[in-house]
Amino acid sequence: MNTKKKIYLDYNATTPVDKRVVEVMLPYFTENFGNASSDHIFGWDAEEGIEFAREQVSNLVNCKSTEITFTSGATEAANLALFGFCKKNSSKGKHIITCKTEHKAILDTMQALETDGFQITYLDVDAEGNIDLEELERSINSETILVCLMLANNETGLIHPLKQIAKIVHEKGVKLMSDITQAVGKFPVDLIDLNLDLAIFSSHKLYGPKGVGALYINKKNKIEIDQTVFGGGQEKRMRPGTLNVPGIVGFGKAADLIFSEMEEESNRVSKLRDQLEALLEEIEDVHINSKKANRLPNTTNVSFENIDGNHLLRKLNNLAVSRGSACTSNIVQPSHVLKAMGLSDELALSSLRISLGRNTTHADIEFASQEIKNTVNQLKKAVI
Ligand SMILES: Cc1ncc(COP(=O)(O)O)c(C=O)c1O
């Protein structure tokens, strides 16, 4: 067994399931194992668990429980939302606006829509990762049906001003969708206040189980999407298929816990993140990406000049940190987010995303910063 000290600093990739969440899930595997669609006592018990979780999840993001559709994750929710919205609204226009720094769950779905004849505008970002709101406004034309912009970036933590964006977009008669996956649970997300039309998020980023997510459809704004997956009538036909009852129950409990613990935990983690950045800034030629922007409290993205990025992660094998997003990190390619912010391929490849969470301690930060410092300095010597 590998006895080397291991430190997990990749909470934006996924989080451990909270033990209190596991506890409420367990009976739904063994005793309350019914199919939530079955019309008997086992089914009714399962259905009760689902509806309780729907209340808990909607409470976390301040929406009505009837506006939440459970899915297998944010990626599936993105597909249902984008294809469903486009199918419903294609007679009004076939133009969508998004941004170059979105997650692949959005960008790859946009690419698929392009092959279906939709025209997609990919907004540029500045060096911090911000979009230009005037450029957004100028990009909206008579064919535009949807703007899709994430609330918080998974790689840099940058937060887009979505409330302001919603105002611009709605004044033009266009709808706004957002991937709020990285924001939920890290700072208060109020869907009524943000006035989003569609939103997607995921359980495993907030100490819930993997394979569960949510699609929010704003009822007040009368948003409708067409069905794009067919089968049973579950989730009002939007997401047919037998519901993952233990997973959804766990998502609900995780939502409940993070809602009550968010403020204290975000303050604690943001102090640790700032300490980590101060320690890393002692390294020569280091850049903290998006540092001047409004950012998530737990995320830092650091670039090191003049080192071989390919060796960096390999040498830091006792630290779980990420280069680019987890979904693409086994393909060694410079991060599309950092490239959009103007970093060279070389600098993007020698960048790390470090994301902190509930189990991160001050000792972890000291250990990690020392490991990174030693490794970067070693690699610098190797280049000379
Ligand atoms: C911003 C963002 N959107 C979407 C996803 C995909 O979520 P899921 O794993 O639930 O499909 C992720 C996860 O990496 C993410 O960080």
TrEMBL record:
**Enzyme Commission no:** 2.8.1.7
Please give the catalytic activity noted in the UniProt record: (sulfur carrier)-H + L-cysteine = (sulfur carrier)-SH + L-alanine
Q: Which InterPro entries did the record assign?
A: Aminotrans_V_dom, Aminotrans_V_PyrdxlP_BS, Cysteine_dSase, EF_Hand_1_Ca_BS, PyrdxlP-dep_Trfase, PyrdxlP-dep_Trfase_major, PyrdxlP-dep_Trfase_small
The chain's coiled-coil residues are: 259-296
The record's Gene3D superfamilies line, in alphabetical order, gives: Aspartate Aminotransferase, domain 1, Type I PLP-dependent aspartate aminotransferase-like (Major domain)
Can you give the residue ranges of the Aminotransferase class V domain?
7-366
PROSITE patterns hit by this protein = AA_TRANSFER_CLASS_5 (PS00595), EF_HAND_1 (PS00018)
Tell me one GO molecular function of this protein.
Answer: metal ion binding
Keywords of the record, alphabetical order, are:
Coiled coil, Iron, Iron-sulfur, Metal-binding, Pyridoxal phosphate, Transferase
User: Would I find Iron-sulfur among this entry's keywords?
Assistant: yes
Q: Which cofactor does it need?
A: pyridoxal 5'-phosphate
Stated family: Belongs to the class-V pyridoxal-phosphate-dependent aminotransferase family. NifS/IscS subfamily.
Name of the molecule in the record: cysteine desulfurase
Please report the organism this UniProt entry assigns to the protein: Gillisia mitskevichiae
